[in-house]
Amino acid sequence: MTDVVPGFDDRLNEILAQQAEKAGESPEAYVRRAVVKRLVLELTEDDGSELGRLLRHLEDVRIETPSETEQPERALNDPARLEAVAKTGLMDSPREDSYDLLVRMVADSLMVPNAAVSLIDQTRQFFKSAVGLPPELEEAREVDVHQTMCQYVVDDGRPLIVEDARLNETLKNHPAVLGGLAISYMGVPLKDDEGLTVGTLCVWDQQPRAWTIGHQQILQDLAWIVRERIFG
Description:
- By secondary structure, the chain is α+β, with helices and mostly antiparallel strands.
- Helix content is 44%, strand content 16%.
- It has helices at 10-22, 27-45, 50-60, 79-88, 97-110, 135-140, 150-156, 175-178, 213-231; strands at residues 114-120, 124-131, 142-144, 160-162, 184-191, 197-205.
- It has a 6-stranded antiparallel β-sheet with strand order 3-2-1-6-5-4, with helices on both faces.
- A hairpin with a 3-residue loop joins β1 and β2 (124-131).
- The chain starts with 9 loop residues before the first helix and ends with a helix.
């Protein structure tokens, strides 16, 4: 078994993976959150820690520090949505000419170097078909969901249009932006008959793009064709 966290034995890694899955997180994120909670607890009890004194002060004046449970539930982790994703049968499925043709049509129509049809569960984005991926992603055909911009399309259930992500408060520190892989982005949700978003049709570029209403309409129209291919 491949180590989830180096230094753990197989049984501990198995338990860790199970608990992380229940929490809707990657094992790494689950461990990170546990460490942060332990640090907060220990600092709060440390009389000599300036941060500990601040935490105790916040507790005394009843100003609560944010917790994971106080955050709004993400559509990304919605069990009904995850079931809808599984029902498509497309996660980890082989490449298909029909999807490849549609993705090339999207890239050509919008004159962009990168386009993809993807399915998204709570931990990863799987590329059913894509053009312009870096070699390592072209082979893997998946990426951690937290490293994608498409996660925001799933959570919001609406198109996301970004002309220059470096100027966007939410996205400016995103790994894809910092790495120069995606500076502009346009993505639309692919929804089933119940309105649950199973994935996205998206395009992106390594430079800023002024997406027009016409561009958005083209992507919406082609997304309808992709949706019919998935659910028709």
